[in-house]
Every structure is written in C-alpha cells, then in structure tokens.
C-alpha cells in the first residue's frame, strides 16, 4: 500500500517535488492538498504554509516537514497537537544562502552600492579599494547557515565574528554568545549579517539600540526573518548617518507593500525573499528520510524544539 504525503506551498512547484520524491520511492505518493481525496490517508506533510483550514484536517498525520529552514511562516499554535515538526536542512539551501551572503557583503565592502548611486548621478568619485582587514563581518546566528556563511567569509579573508545563544567553535571565527556579549559583538563589526532563528527572544533584535552599538557607518544585511528588524528604526539610523546601508531579503510584511518607506531609501537594496533556494532533486533525500522516520514513529532529523522555538 502506498503511503500518502500531502504537499502545500504557494511558492514551490508541486510537480517537481512529487517527481523528486516518487521517482526515488514508488511506495510513496505525494499529492498537492487540492487533490487529496481521502484526508484520512495522509500520514506526512511537506509544507511551506498549511492549506486553508490547517493540517488538523488530516487525522492520521505523523509528521510535518517544513519546506524551509525556518518555521515562522507556520503558525505553531495552529499545528495539530502532538505531531512533530522538522525544519529543512539541505545542501542546496545552504549553498544558495552562502552565495547570497557573499554577494551582498562584497557589494557593500567594495562600495558597489555607492557606485550605483554615483553612476545614476553621473558622479566620478575615486576611492582607493578598501582592505578586508578593515572590514570585520559579524554573523548573527551560528547555526547551520550562519556557520557555513562565517566559514566562507573566513576563507575569503574577512575577519569574522559570530553571535548565537551558545558559543560555537568555527575555525577562524571569534564566537560571542548571549545578551551579555551582544554589545561587544555589535561594536566589533563593519557589517552585520543576520541569520538567526526568529523567536520571542530574537524578535526586533535589529533595532535602534543595536544600531547605536555598531560602528558608525556600518552595514546591515538581513536574511533571517522580517521580524528580526524594526524597519522604521533602520530607516531612522540611515537618515541619521549611523548606518550606511542595508540589504534586506525578508520583511515584516511580505510582499513588502509598494508604499513602504523602505523602497524610498536609496541606501537599501530590497530582494524579494530569494536568499535561499531549495532544489527538490537534492532536498528530496532529506524529506524522504524524515518521512520514513515519522512513519516509523522515530524522531525526525532537525526536529524543532517547540519550547525553544527553533
Ligand atoms: P539553526 O537553527 O541552525 O540556527 C539558528 C541560530 O539562531 C542558532 O545559531 C541559534 O543559537 C541562534 N539563536 C536562536 N535563538 C537565539 C537567541 N535567543 N540568542 C542568540 N542566538 C539565538 O537555523 P539555520 O541556520 O538553518 O537557519 C536560520 C534562519 O535563517 C532560519 O530560521 C530562517 O528564518 C532563515 N532563513 C532564511 C532564508 C531566506 O531565504 N531568507 C532561507 C533559509 C533560512 P545556537 O546555535 O546557540 O542554538
Ligand atoms: C527558509 C526560507 O526558511 O526560505 O528556508 O525563508
């Protein structure tokens, strides 16, 4: 008998996912939520966001796999009680996040953001190329993605620091941890890139108080979640000259509304939540592994600790 996985996402391609999973495992059937005929047959869910009405409509659900590394797109309070949730850790996602981080950081480091504005204004302003040694980068969050980004930046020759809940041992990266060490971490960076998990403790962490602690003229890159950033306080810090510019991939409201003041700041580059990408053909392996585990009643890999929030 085939075991049924329900698929639900308004961003990802259901056919590509069904092909990636079912070509490897003919004993599994992955079906878009709109085409499920018997909700009681569904035992596993692969979701970016749950279908309308929620996942409670599947009485025999044994596991939920997020279609992202983060889980904040899901309303945890509305998930069926007692059904375990796992987040996605996948090499294709890590690679795209590292690439995005490096591209965004180099753009600020080499002043391409400034040169773009000068180009439009027909200004020729020579400035000697900066030295990496004078451009320490701080990575907020040294989890799966943050440590991969920090490692890559170190290999490229940037001085790198990292901040997380606990200390982490990443080669060449000075690790800070906890709220007590946050001020020293922030003061150490010419650019801060955020890739924290969003929890009640980290919500709003990129705020006026944090910008005041950073070096004058520092840059901010946010690829974590929109809820980490207090958007009006970033705009105020840019207007005051404290923060020189920002690259933002995630927003409190997505899509970012067309009348958002963020669009009016030339120092801010907006990308539409594209930092990380998941290749179904690669990530299907992790999904199948977790499906098997959930169906056997075993703990899924990268299971979310709901009490901790990530
Ligand atoms: P991990 O769970 O591996 O890492 C989360 C990090 O957050 C850990 O380092 C953790 O600390 C830290 N953290 C959590 N709470 C606190 C706290 N209170 N104080 C300090 N640090 C804290 O997740 P990933 O690295 O896989 O993903 C990180 C986030 O990136 C996701 O949650 C998601 O929101 C975002 N993301 C965005 C994408 C995009 O396209 N923009 C794509 C993919 C992910 P510790 O290590 O000590 O536990
Ligand atoms: C994720 C994301 O969490 O794409 O994976 O935001």
Q: Which secondary structure elements does this structure contain, and how are they paired or packed?
A:
Elements: E1 3-8, H1 14-22, E2 28-32, E3 42-47, E4 63-66, E5 85-86, H2 91-109, H3 112-120, E6 137-140, H4 144-156, E7 160-164, E8 173-177, H5 178-187, E9 191-194, H6 208-213, E10 218-222, H7 231-239, E11 243-248, E12 268-270, H8 280-295
Parallel strand pairs: 1-2, 1-3, 3-4, 4-5, 6-7, 6-9, 7-8, 9-10, 10-11, 11-12
This protein binds NADPH dihydro-nicotinamide-adenine-dinucleotide phosphate (NDP) and oxalic acid.
Question: What order do the strands of the largest sheet run in, or round the barrel if closed?
Answer: 8-7-6-9-10-11-12
Looking at the overall shape, the CATH architecture of the largest domain is 3-Layer(aba) Sandwich
Percent of residues in β-strands: 15-25%
What string, H for helix and E for strand, traces the elements in order?
EHEEEEHHEHEEHEHEHEEH
DSSP strand count: 12
Fourth CATH level, the homologous superfamily of the largest domain? NAD(P)-binding Rossmann-like Domain
CATH C-level class of the largest domain: Alpha Beta
In the predicted model, the low-confidence regions spanning at least 5 consecutive residues are: none
What's the overall average pLDDT, rounded? 97
Figure out the total of helices. Answer: 8
How far do the termini sit from each other?
34 Å
Give the biggest beta sheet: 7 strands, parallel
Share in helix: 25-40%
Overall domain count: 2
- Ligands, ions, cofactors: NADPH dihydro-nicotinamide-adenine-dinucleotide phosphate, oxalic acid
């Amino acid at each position: 008998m085939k075991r049924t996985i329900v698929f639900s996402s308004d961003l990802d391609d259901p056919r590509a996912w069904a092909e990636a999973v079912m070509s490897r495992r003919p004993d599994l059937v992955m079906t878009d939520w709109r085409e499920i005929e018997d909700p009681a047959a569904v035992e596993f869910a692969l979701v970016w966001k749950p279908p309308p009405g929620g996942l409670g409509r599947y009485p025999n659900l044994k596991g939920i796999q997020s279609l992202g590394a983060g889980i904040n797109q899901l309303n945890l309070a509305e998930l069926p009680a007692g059904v375990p949730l796992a987040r996605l850790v996948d090499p294709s996602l890590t690679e795209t996040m590292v690439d995005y981080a490096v591209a965004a950081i180099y753009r600020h480091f080499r002043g391409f953001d400034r040169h773009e504005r000068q180009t439009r204004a027909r200004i020729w302003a020579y400035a000697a190329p900066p030295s990496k040694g004078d451009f320490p980068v701080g990575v907020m969050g040294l989890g799966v993605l943050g440590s991969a980004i920090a490692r890559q930046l170190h290999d490229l020759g940037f001085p790198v620091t990292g901040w997380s809940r606990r200390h982490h041992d990443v080669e060449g990266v000075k690790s800070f941890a906890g709220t007590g060490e946050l001020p020293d971490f922030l003061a150490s960076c010419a650019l801060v890139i955020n890739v924290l998990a969003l929890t009640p403790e980290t919500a709003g962490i990129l705020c006026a108080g944090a910008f005041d602690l950073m070096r004058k003229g520092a840059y901010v890159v946010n690829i974590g979640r929109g809820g980490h950033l207090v958007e009006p306080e970033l705009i105020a810090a840019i207007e005051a000259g404290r923060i020189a510019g920002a690259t933002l991939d995630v927003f409190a409201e997505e899509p970012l509304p067309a009348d958002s003041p963020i669009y009016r700041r030339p120092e801010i580059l907006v990308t539409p939540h594209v930092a990380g990408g998941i290749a179904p053909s690669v990530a299907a392996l992790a999904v199948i592994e977790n499906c098997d585990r959930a169906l056997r009643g075993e703990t899924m890999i990268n299971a979310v600790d709901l009490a901790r929030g990530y």
